[in-house]
User: What shape does this take?
Amino acid sequence: MLDTFITSRVRRKIIVVYAKYPDFKTHVRGLAKVIKEDAGNIQRELKRLEKIGFLISERQSNTKVYYTNKHFPIFKELQSIVLKAQRLTKPRQQV
Assistant: This one.
């Protein structure tokens, strides 16, 4: 369902992770392992999401770590959409 609104597969996966787990902090390679995507594509999307304010980054030694900007103007709404979309796409158990 989210694929209709967010057409980039990598961006969609990143938004889902950071909206679902707002306290999640990681670097590019760590996120690549979690969402199983190419680190180069992830890097590009992280920069875009940071530029609009959805993500914040900070340097920790030689690594750039990204985390959710909980003060992003539409963060709560986006989080709600992600959680609802995930509930709708889960297969229903038969009784």
Summary: The first helix runs from residue 2 to 5. Strands lie at 25-26, 55-60, 63-68. DSSP finds five helices and three strands in the chain.
